[in-house]
Amino acid sequence: xxxxxxxxLVVIIILVLMYxxxxxxxxxxxxxxxxxxxxxKKRYDLIPNLVAxxxxxxxxxxxxxxxxxxxxxxxxxxxxxxxxxxxxDAKVSSALGSIMIAVENYPELKANENVMHLQHSLNEIExxxxxxxxxxxxxxxxxxxxxxxxxxxxxxxxxxYQRKAVFEIDETQRQNVNVKELxxx
Amino acid sequence: xxxVSELTDFYYKVLYPTLKKLEKDRKHLRYRILLVGSGxxxxxxxxxxxxxxxxxxxxxxxxxxxxxxxxxxxxxxKFLIKDYTDEFKNKIIExxxxxxxxxLNYTQLLHVPQHLFERSEFFxxxxxxxxxxxxxxxxxxxxxxxxxxxxxxxxxxDSKGRESWSTIFQGLFIVADFHKTFHGKxxxxxxxxxxxxxxxxxxxLQSKNLERDELIKLDNNEFEKKFVVYGTDQIEARYIxxxxxxxxxxxxEKKSKHPLYISxxxxxxxxxxxxxxxxFEPSVFSSLLEYKIAxxxxxxxxxxxxIVEELKLNQKLWSKR
Lengths: 185, 321
Fold this sequence. Notes:
By secondary structure, chain A is mainly alpha-helical.
Protein backbone atom coordinates (compact mmCIF):
# COMPACT_ATOMS: atom_id res chain seq x y z
CA UNK A 1 0.00 0.00 0.00
CA UNK A 2 1.41 3.38 -0.90
CA UNK A 3 2.15 6.00 1.71
CA UNK A 4 -0.36 8.48 0.27
CA UNK A 5 -3.14 5.94 0.61
CA UNK A 6 -2.30 5.39 4.28
CA UNK A 7 -2.27 9.13 4.89
CA UNK A 8 -5.61 9.49 3.16
CA LEU A 9 -7.05 6.71 5.31
CA VAL A 10 -5.78 8.32 8.52
CA VAL A 11 -7.21 11.70 7.47
CA ILE A 12 -10.59 10.11 6.76
CA ILE A 13 -10.61 8.36 10.15
CA ILE A 14 -9.77 11.62 11.93
CA LEU A 15 -12.53 13.45 10.05
CA VAL A 16 -15.06 10.78 10.91
CA LEU A 17 -14.07 10.85 14.59
CA MET A 18 -14.35 14.63 14.67
CA TYR A 19 -17.71 14.56 12.97
CA UNK A 20 -19.04 11.93 15.36
CA UNK A 21 -17.79 13.69 18.46
CA UNK A 22 -19.50 16.91 17.38
CA UNK A 23 -22.78 15.12 16.71
CA UNK A 24 -22.50 13.36 20.08
CA UNK A 25 -21.98 16.69 21.84
CA UNK A 26 -24.94 18.26 20.07
CA UNK A 27 -27.14 15.31 20.97
CA UNK A 28 -25.99 15.43 24.58
CA UNK A 29 -27.12 19.06 24.77
CA UNK A 30 -30.52 18.20 23.30
CA UNK A 31 -30.83 15.18 25.52
CA UNK A 32 -30.18 17.13 28.69
CA UNK A 33 -32.42 19.96 27.56
CA UNK A 34 -35.25 17.45 27.42
CA UNK A 35 -34.52 16.76 31.11
CA UNK A 36 -34.50 20.48 31.86
CA UNK A 37 -37.78 20.84 30.05
CA UNK A 38 -39.35 18.06 32.09
CA UNK A 39 -38.54 19.65 35.45
CA UNK A 40 -39.53 23.09 34.19
CA LYS A 41 -42.86 21.65 33.18
CA LYS A 42 -43.29 20.16 36.65
CA ARG A 43 -42.90 23.63 38.08
CA TYR A 44 -45.30 25.18 35.58
CA ASP A 45 -47.86 22.57 36.62
CA LEU A 46 -47.73 23.84 40.18
CA ILE A 47 -48.43 27.43 39.24
CA PRO A 48 -52.27 27.33 38.78
CA ASN A 49 -52.63 25.59 42.13
CA LEU A 50 -50.35 28.11 43.80
CA VAL A 51 -52.10 31.11 42.29
CA ALA A 52 -55.52 29.73 43.28
CA UNK A 53 -54.39 29.14 46.86
CA UNK A 54 -52.85 32.52 47.48
CA UNK A 55 -54.90 34.92 45.36
CA UNK A 56 -57.72 35.18 47.93
CA UNK A 57 -55.33 36.68 50.44
CA UNK A 58 -52.85 38.51 48.28
CA UNK A 59 -54.61 41.71 47.33
CA UNK A 60 -51.50 43.80 46.89
CA UNK A 61 -49.63 41.27 44.80
CA UNK A 62 -52.28 40.77 42.12
CA UNK A 63 -49.88 42.08 39.47
CA UNK A 64 -47.22 39.52 40.13
CA UNK A 65 -49.75 36.66 40.25
CA UNK A 66 -51.09 37.72 36.88
CA UNK A 67 -47.58 37.92 35.52
CA UNK A 68 -46.76 34.41 36.65
CA UNK A 69 -49.95 33.07 35.08
CA UNK A 70 -49.09 34.83 31.85
CA UNK A 71 -45.56 33.45 31.87
CA UNK A 72 -46.94 29.96 32.32
CA UNK A 73 -49.26 30.44 29.36
CA UNK A 74 -46.31 31.65 27.28
CA UNK A 75 -44.28 28.62 28.26
CA UNK A 76 -47.06 26.29 27.23
CA UNK A 77 -47.29 27.72 23.74
CA UNK A 78 -46.15 25.27 21.10
CA UNK A 79 -43.03 25.92 19.00
CA UNK A 80 -41.13 28.13 21.37
CA UNK A 81 -37.38 27.91 21.01
CA UNK A 82 -34.92 26.64 23.63
CA UNK A 83 -33.55 30.15 24.03
CA UNK A 84 -37.05 31.46 24.80
CA UNK A 85 -37.58 28.68 27.31
CA UNK A 86 -34.37 29.66 29.06
CA UNK A 87 -35.51 33.27 29.18
CA UNK A 88 -38.96 32.35 30.53
CA ASP A 89 -37.39 30.14 33.18
CA ALA A 90 -35.38 33.07 34.54
CA LYS A 91 -38.50 35.25 34.72
CA VAL A 92 -40.62 32.56 36.37
CA SER A 93 -37.91 31.85 38.93
CA SER A 94 -37.73 35.44 40.01
CA ALA A 95 -41.53 35.92 40.02
CA LEU A 96 -42.07 32.79 42.11
CA GLY A 97 -39.33 33.94 44.44
CA SER A 98 -41.16 37.23 45.02
CA ILE A 99 -44.46 35.42 45.65
CA MET A 100 -42.81 33.17 48.20
CA ILE A 101 -41.35 36.15 50.01
CA ALA A 102 -44.73 37.90 49.94
CA VAL A 103 -46.36 34.83 51.51
CA GLU A 104 -44.31 35.54 54.61
CA ASN A 105 -46.37 38.71 55.16
CA TYR A 106 -49.64 36.75 55.47
CA PRO A 107 -49.83 34.69 58.64
CA GLU A 108 -52.97 32.88 57.38
CA LEU A 109 -51.09 31.78 54.29
CA LYS A 110 -47.99 30.75 56.13
CA ALA A 111 -50.08 28.45 58.30
CA ASN A 112 -52.15 27.12 55.41
CA GLU A 113 -51.33 23.48 54.85
CA ASN A 114 -51.92 23.60 51.13
CA VAL A 115 -49.59 26.57 50.73
CA MET A 116 -47.01 24.93 52.92
CA HIS A 117 -47.13 21.81 50.83
CA LEU A 118 -46.81 23.87 47.65
CA GLN A 119 -43.89 25.74 49.10
CA HIS A 120 -42.15 22.47 49.90
CA SER A 121 -42.84 21.07 46.46
CA LEU A 122 -41.50 24.24 44.87
CA ASN A 123 -38.32 24.05 46.92
CA GLU A 124 -37.81 20.48 45.89
CA ILE A 125 -38.42 21.26 42.23
CA GLU A 126 -36.15 24.27 42.49
CA UNK A 127 -33.33 21.93 43.53
CA UNK A 128 -34.07 19.66 40.60
CA UNK A 129 -34.16 22.60 38.21
CA UNK A 130 -30.86 23.86 39.54
CA UNK A 131 -29.31 20.43 38.92
CA UNK A 132 -30.78 20.31 35.42
CA UNK A 133 -29.48 23.79 34.63
CA UNK A 134 -25.99 22.85 35.78
CA UNK A 135 -26.03 19.68 33.70
CA UNK A 136 -27.23 21.65 30.68
CA UNK A 137 -24.61 24.35 31.14
CA UNK A 138 -21.87 21.73 31.28
CA UNK A 139 -23.12 20.04 28.11
CA UNK A 140 -23.37 23.39 26.31
CA UNK A 141 -19.88 24.36 27.48
CA UNK A 142 -18.47 21.11 26.08
CA UNK A 143 -20.35 21.74 22.83
CA UNK A 144 -19.30 25.39 22.57
CA UNK A 145 -15.69 24.47 23.29
CA UNK A 146 -15.73 21.89 20.55
CA UNK A 147 -17.13 24.24 17.92
CA UNK A 148 -14.63 26.98 18.79
CA UNK A 149 -11.46 25.00 19.40
CA UNK A 150 -8.97 23.82 16.80
CA UNK A 151 -9.32 21.42 15.00
CA UNK A 152 -13.01 20.66 15.49
CA UNK A 153 -14.01 24.28 14.74
CA UNK A 154 -13.38 23.76 10.99
CA UNK A 155 -15.63 20.74 10.97
CA UNK A 156 -18.28 22.60 13.01
CA UNK A 157 -18.22 25.45 10.52
CA UNK A 158 -18.75 23.04 7.68
CA UNK A 159 -21.64 21.46 9.58
CA UNK A 160 -23.05 24.92 10.35
CA TYR A 161 -23.15 24.39 14.10
CA GLN A 162 -23.83 27.54 16.09
CA ARG A 163 -22.95 28.46 19.65
CA LYS A 164 -25.68 27.76 22.19
CA ALA A 165 -26.69 29.85 25.19
CA VAL A 166 -26.29 28.72 28.78
CA PHE A 167 -28.60 29.41 31.71
CA GLU A 168 -27.37 32.50 33.46
CA ILE A 169 -27.70 32.28 37.16
CA ASP A 170 -27.64 35.92 38.10
CA GLU A 171 -27.12 37.37 41.51
CA THR A 172 -30.71 38.46 42.16
CA GLN A 173 -31.90 34.94 41.54
CA ARG A 174 -29.32 33.54 43.91
CA GLN A 175 -30.43 35.97 46.58
CA ASN A 176 -34.05 34.96 46.14
CA VAL A 177 -33.17 31.35 46.70
CA ASN A 178 -31.11 32.22 49.76
CA VAL A 179 -33.87 34.25 51.32
CA LYS A 180 -36.31 31.41 50.82
CA GLU A 181 -34.00 28.94 52.44
CA LEU A 182 -33.59 31.30 55.34
CA UNK A 183 -37.33 31.45 55.93
CA UNK A 184 -37.65 27.72 55.79
CA UNK A 185 -34.88 27.02 58.24
CA UNK B 1 -22.38 15.29 69.20
CA UNK B 2 -19.25 15.48 71.32
CA UNK B 3 -16.21 17.16 69.80
CA VAL B 4 -12.85 15.48 69.25
CA SER B 5 -11.33 17.27 72.25
CA GLU B 6 -14.23 16.29 74.52
CA LEU B 7 -13.78 12.72 73.40
CA THR B 8 -10.04 12.90 74.03
CA ASP B 9 -10.79 14.13 77.55
CA PHE B 10 -13.11 11.19 78.02
CA TYR B 11 -10.36 8.83 76.84
CA TYR B 12 -7.79 10.18 79.27
CA LYS B 13 -10.07 10.84 82.24
CA VAL B 14 -12.92 8.35 82.39
CA LEU B 15 -11.11 5.51 80.70
CA TYR B 16 -7.84 6.15 82.52
CA PRO B 17 -8.15 3.38 85.17
CA THR B 18 -8.95 0.84 82.44
CA LEU B 19 -6.13 2.13 80.27
CA LYS B 20 -3.68 1.78 83.13
CA LYS B 21 -4.70 -1.81 83.68
CA LEU B 22 -4.51 -2.55 79.96
CA GLU B 23 -1.14 -0.86 79.82
CA LYS B 24 0.12 -3.29 82.46
CA ASP B 25 -1.30 -6.22 80.48
CA ARG B 26 0.33 -4.84 77.37
CA LYS B 27 3.79 -4.78 78.93
CA HIS B 28 3.40 -8.37 80.13
CA LEU B 29 2.13 -9.34 76.72
CA ARG B 30 5.02 -7.68 74.93
CA TYR B 31 7.43 -9.59 77.15
CA ARG B 32 5.62 -12.85 76.47
CA ILE B 33 5.56 -12.26 72.72
CA LEU B 34 9.29 -11.60 72.64
CA LEU B 35 9.97 -14.70 74.75
CA VAL B 36 7.68 -17.03 72.82
CA GLY B 37 8.78 -15.48 69.53
CA SER B 38 12.49 -16.03 70.07
CA GLY B 39 11.95 -19.54 71.47
CA UNK B 40 9.74 -20.43 68.54
CA UNK B 41 12.22 -19.01 66.01
CA UNK B 42 15.12 -20.94 67.56
CA UNK B 43 13.31 -24.29 67.67
CA UNK B 44 11.79 -23.86 64.23
CA UNK B 45 15.05 -23.13 62.48
CA UNK B 46 16.86 -25.86 64.37
CA UNK B 47 14.39 -28.39 62.98
CA UNK B 48 14.39 -26.80 59.53
CA UNK B 49 18.19 -26.80 59.17
CA UNK B 50 18.47 -30.42 60.34
CA UNK B 51 15.78 -31.48 57.89
CA UNK B 52 17.30 -29.40 55.09
CA UNK B 53 20.78 -30.87 55.57
CA UNK B 54 19.59 -34.45 55.68
CA UNK B 55 17.17 -34.25 52.77
CA UNK B 56 19.14 -31.75 50.64
CA UNK B 57 16.33 -29.57 49.26
CA UNK B 58 16.77 -26.46 47.07
CA UNK B 59 15.37 -22.92 46.97
CA UNK B 60 11.79 -24.12 46.86
CA UNK B 61 12.25 -25.75 50.21
CA UNK B 62 13.59 -22.51 51.68
CA UNK B 63 10.53 -20.57 50.45
CA UNK B 64 8.29 -23.23 51.92
CA UNK B 65 10.08 -23.03 55.28
CA UNK B 66 9.58 -19.28 55.47
CA UNK B 67 5.95 -19.64 54.49
CA UNK B 68 5.34 -22.14 57.29
CA UNK B 69 7.34 -20.04 59.74
CA UNK B 70 5.27 -16.93 59.13
CA UNK B 71 2.02 -18.89 58.97
CA UNK B 72 2.48 -20.51 62.34
CA UNK B 73 4.01 -17.31 63.73
CA UNK B 74 0.96 -15.23 62.80
CA UNK B 75 -1.35 -17.83 64.29
CA UNK B 76 0.58 -17.92 67.57
CA UNK B 77 0.70 -14.11 67.70
CA LYS B 78 -3.06 -13.82 67.22
CA PHE B 79 -3.61 -16.42 69.91
CA LEU B 80 -1.37 -14.55 72.34
CA ILE B 81 -3.01 -11.14 71.87
CA LYS B 82 -6.62 -12.37 71.75
CA ASP B 83 -7.55 -11.69 75.38
CA TYR B 84 -5.86 -8.34 75.32
CA THR B 85 -7.64 -7.38 72.09
CA ASP B 86 -11.04 -8.44 73.43
CA GLU B 87 -10.60 -6.47 76.57
CA PHE B 88 -9.41 -3.40 74.69
CA LYS B 89 -12.41 -3.48 72.37
CA ASN B 90 -14.98 -4.04 75.10
CA LYS B 91 -13.57 -1.59 77.58
CA ILE B 92 -12.16 1.14 75.35
CA ILE B 93 -13.65 1.10 71.84
CA GLU B 94 -17.22 0.33 72.88
CA UNK B 95 -17.38 3.04 75.58
CA UNK B 96 -15.90 5.54 73.12
CA UNK B 97 -18.68 4.76 70.65
CA UNK B 98 -21.34 4.95 73.36
CA UNK B 99 -19.94 8.27 74.49
CA UNK B 100 -20.22 9.66 70.96
CA UNK B 101 -23.75 8.40 70.48
CA UNK B 102 -25.57 5.98 72.74
CA UNK B 103 -28.03 5.08 70.01
CA LEU B 104 -25.35 3.01 68.31
CA ASN B 105 -24.60 -0.67 68.84
CA TYR B 106 -21.20 -2.24 68.64
CA THR B 107 -20.40 -5.84 67.69
CA GLN B 108 -16.77 -6.80 67.70
CA LEU B 109 -16.76 -9.73 65.30
CA LEU B 110 -19.25 -8.69 62.62
CA HIS B 111 -18.76 -6.40 59.63
CA VAL B 112 -20.85 -4.58 57.02
CA PRO B 113 -22.36 -7.28 54.74
CA GLN B 114 -20.63 -7.99 51.45
CA HIS B 115 -23.63 -7.08 49.29
CA LEU B 116 -23.47 -3.50 50.55
CA PHE B 117 -19.78 -3.26 49.71
CA GLU B 118 -20.46 -4.63 46.23
CA ARG B 119 -23.45 -2.32 45.80
CA SER B 120 -21.22 0.69 46.40
CA GLU B 121 -19.43 -0.02 43.09
CA PHE B 122 -16.21 1.48 44.39
CA PHE B 123 -14.30 -1.29 42.68
CA UNK B 124 -15.19 -3.27 39.62
CA UNK B 125 -13.12 -6.33 40.57
CA UNK B 126 -14.97 -9.28 42.06
CA UNK B 127 -14.41 -9.63 45.78
CA UNK B 128 -13.20 -13.17 46.51
CA UNK B 129 -12.71 -12.70 50.20
CA UNK B 130 -14.13 -10.08 52.53
CA UNK B 131 -13.09 -9.86 56.12
CA UNK B 132 -13.72 -7.25 58.73
CA UNK B 133 -14.67 -6.51 62.30
CA UNK B 134 -15.80 -3.75 64.63
CA UNK B 135 -19.30 -3.39 63.27
CA UNK B 136 -21.21 -0.32 64.46
CA UNK B 137 -24.83 0.25 63.54
CA UNK B 138 -27.81 2.25 64.66
CA UNK B 139 -30.10 5.15 63.91
CA UNK B 140 -29.27 8.81 64.54
CA UNK B 141 -32.11 11.32 64.04
CA UNK B 142 -33.91 8.91 61.74
CA UNK B 143 -30.81 8.24 59.64
CA UNK B 144 -29.66 4.62 59.62
CA UNK B 145 -25.90 4.37 59.87
CA UNK B 146 -23.57 1.40 59.83
CA UNK B 147 -19.85 1.05 59.45
CA UNK B 148 -17.01 -1.35 60.07
CA UNK B 149 -13.47 -2.19 59.30
CA UNK B 150 -13.30 -4.01 55.97
CA UNK B 151 -10.65 -5.83 54.00
CA UNK B 152 -11.66 -6.92 50.50
CA UNK B 153 -9.32 -9.17 48.56
CA UNK B 154 -9.01 -10.75 45.16
CA UNK B 155 -7.63 -14.23 44.47
CA UNK B 156 -4.98 -14.80 41.81
CA UNK B 157 -3.71 -18.08 40.49
CA ASP B 158 -0.46 -18.38 38.61
CA SER B 159 0.36 -20.95 35.92
CA LYS B 160 1.52 -23.46 38.52
CA GLY B 161 -1.79 -23.22 40.30
CA ARG B 162 -0.35 -21.37 43.27
CA GLU B 163 -2.76 -19.06 45.00
CA SER B 164 -2.08 -15.51 46.06
CA TRP B 165 -4.25 -12.67 47.33
CA SER B 166 -4.18 -8.97 46.57
CA THR B 167 -5.96 -6.22 48.45
CA ILE B 168 -8.77 -4.37 46.71
CA PHE B 169 -9.72 -2.20 49.63
CA GLN B 170 -8.77 -1.96 53.26
CA GLY B 171 -10.15 0.63 55.58
CA LEU B 172 -13.35 2.00 56.97
CA PHE B 173 -16.60 1.39 55.10
CA ILE B 174 -19.66 3.47 56.02
CA VAL B 175 -23.25 3.20 54.76
CA ALA B 176 -25.97 5.69 55.70
CA ASP B 177 -29.43 6.71 54.51
CA PHE B 178 -29.35 9.60 52.07
CA HIS B 179 -31.98 12.31 52.36
CA LYS B 180 -32.74 12.86 48.68
CA THR B 181 -34.71 10.53 46.42
CA PHE B 182 -32.81 9.21 43.43
CA HIS B 183 -32.98 6.22 41.11
CA GLY B 184 -29.63 5.92 39.34
CA LYS B 185 -26.06 5.50 40.49
CA UNK B 186 -23.44 8.13 41.17
CA UNK B 187 -19.91 7.07 42.04
CA UNK B 188 -17.17 9.43 43.22
CA UNK B 189 -13.60 8.16 43.13
CA UNK B 190 -10.25 9.69 44.03
CA UNK B 191 -8.88 11.41 40.95
CA UNK B 192 -5.72 9.68 39.85
CA UNK B 193 -5.71 10.32 36.09
CA UNK B 194 -6.16 14.08 36.20
CA UNK B 195 -3.48 14.59 38.85
CA UNK B 196 -1.01 12.32 37.04
CA UNK B 197 -1.56 13.33 33.43
CA UNK B 198 -2.93 16.87 33.77
CA UNK B 199 -6.36 18.24 32.91
CA UNK B 200 -6.40 17.65 29.17
CA UNK B 201 -5.07 14.11 28.79
CA UNK B 202 -6.31 13.00 32.23
CA UNK B 203 -9.79 14.30 31.51
CA UNK B 204 -9.81 12.53 28.18
CA LEU B 205 -8.70 9.26 29.80
CA GLN B 206 -11.47 9.58 32.39
CA SER B 207 -14.12 10.03 29.75
CA LYS B 208 -12.86 6.89 28.00
CA ASN B 209 -13.20 4.64 31.07
CA LEU B 210 -15.30 1.84 29.64
CA GLU B 211 -15.82 0.11 32.98
CA ARG B 212 -17.71 3.07 34.35
CA ASP B 213 -20.90 5.00 33.53
CA GLU B 214 -20.91 8.47 32.01
CA LEU B 215 -18.29 10.93 33.22
CA ILE B 216 -19.88 13.79 35.16
CA LYS B 217 -17.95 17.06 35.02
CA LEU B 218 -18.84 19.27 37.94
CA ASP B 219 -18.79 23.02 38.35
CA ASN B 220 -16.53 23.09 41.38
CA ASN B 221 -12.85 23.22 40.44
CA GLU B 222 -11.50 22.03 43.74
CA PHE B 223 -13.89 19.08 43.74
CA GLU B 224 -12.95 18.22 40.16
CA LYS B 225 -9.26 18.19 41.09
CA LYS B 226 -9.77 15.85 44.03
CA PHE B 227 -12.37 13.50 42.58
CA VAL B 228 -13.68 11.99 39.41
CA VAL B 229 -17.43 11.35 39.21
CA TYR B 230 -19.26 8.75 37.12
CA GLY B 231 -23.01 8.36 37.01
CA THR B 232 -25.98 7.00 35.15
CA ASP B 233 -27.75 10.36 34.97
CA GLN B 234 -26.15 13.78 34.43
CA ILE B 235 -29.02 15.69 36.02
CA GLU B 236 -29.53 13.36 38.95
CA ALA B 237 -25.82 13.39 39.80
CA ARG B 238 -25.97 17.15 40.10
CA TYR B 239 -29.20 16.97 42.05
CA ILE B 240 -27.33 14.84 44.61
CA UNK B 241 -24.08 16.78 44.38
CA UNK B 242 -25.39 20.25 45.10
CA UNK B 243 -22.84 23.00 45.62
CA UNK B 244 -23.23 22.72 49.36
CA UNK B 245 -22.73 18.94 49.41
CA UNK B 246 -19.61 19.18 47.24
CA UNK B 247 -18.29 21.74 49.69
CA UNK B 248 -19.06 19.47 52.65
CA UNK B 249 -17.48 16.45 50.98
CA UNK B 250 -14.31 18.44 50.34
CA UNK B 251 -14.24 19.33 54.03
CA UNK B 252 -14.72 15.69 54.92
CA GLU B 253 -11.90 14.68 52.58
CA LYS B 254 -9.54 17.13 54.26
CA LYS B 255 -10.46 15.78 57.68
CA SER B 256 -10.08 12.14 56.73
CA LYS B 257 -6.57 12.62 55.29
CA HIS B 258 -6.91 9.37 53.32
CA PRO B 259 -8.21 8.49 49.85
CA LEU B 260 -11.98 8.74 49.82
CA TYR B 261 -14.54 6.76 47.82
CA ILE B 262 -18.17 7.89 47.85
CA SER B 263 -21.20 6.55 46.05
CA UNK B 264 -24.94 7.06 45.97
CA UNK B 265 -26.85 3.91 45.14
CA UNK B 266 -30.30 2.74 46.27
CA UNK B 267 -31.31 5.42 48.84
CA UNK B 268 -27.90 5.28 50.52
CA UNK B 269 -24.61 7.05 50.65
CA UNK B 270 -21.56 4.76 50.83
CA UNK B 271 -18.24 6.07 51.99
CA UNK B 272 -14.96 4.17 51.90
CA UNK B 273 -11.88 5.61 53.60
CA UNK B 274 -8.77 3.81 52.49
CA UNK B 275 -6.49 3.49 55.52
CA UNK B 276 -4.74 0.36 54.24
CA UNK B 277 -4.60 -1.13 57.70
CA UNK B 278 -6.75 -2.82 60.30
CA UNK B 279 -8.41 -0.15 62.44
CA PHE B 280 -9.40 -0.10 66.09
CA GLU B 281 -6.77 -2.70 66.99
CA PRO B 282 -4.89 -2.23 70.26
CA SER B 283 -1.25 -1.29 69.94
CA VAL B 284 1.08 -3.93 71.36
CA PHE B 285 4.49 -2.35 70.97
CA SER B 286 3.68 1.24 71.89
CA SER B 287 1.74 2.69 74.79
CA LEU B 288 -2.03 3.08 74.70
CA LEU B 289 -1.56 6.30 76.62
CA GLU B 290 0.45 7.86 73.82
CA TYR B 291 -1.37 10.84 72.39
CA LYS B 292 -0.83 9.80 68.77
CA ILE B 293 -2.29 6.33 69.35
CA ALA B 294 -5.24 7.70 71.30
CA UNK B 295 -6.03 10.29 68.65
CA UNK B 296 -6.17 7.62 65.98
CA UNK B 297 -9.01 5.78 67.75
CA UNK B 298 -10.80 8.98 68.71
CA UNK B 299 -10.55 10.72 65.34
CA UNK B 300 -11.52 7.70 63.27
CA UNK B 301 -14.65 7.10 65.34
CA UNK B 302 -15.51 10.78 65.36
CA UNK B 303 -15.14 10.95 61.59
CA UNK B 304 -17.38 7.94 60.94
CA UNK B 305 -20.15 8.81 63.39
CA UNK B 306 -19.90 12.50 62.53
CA ILE B 307 -21.01 12.10 58.91
CA VAL B 308 -24.69 12.39 59.82
CA GLU B 309 -24.13 15.90 61.17
CA GLU B 310 -21.26 16.86 58.90
CA LEU B 311 -23.11 16.04 55.68
CA LYS B 312 -26.46 17.10 57.20
CA LEU B 313 -28.03 13.75 56.38
CA ASN B 314 -30.57 14.34 59.14
CA GLN B 315 -32.09 17.35 57.36
CA LYS B 316 -34.71 15.59 55.34
CA LEU B 317 -35.91 17.16 52.16
CA TRP B 318 -39.61 17.48 51.55
CA SER B 319 -39.74 14.64 49.10
CA LYS B 320 -38.78 12.23 51.88
CA ARG B 321 -41.05 13.51 54.61
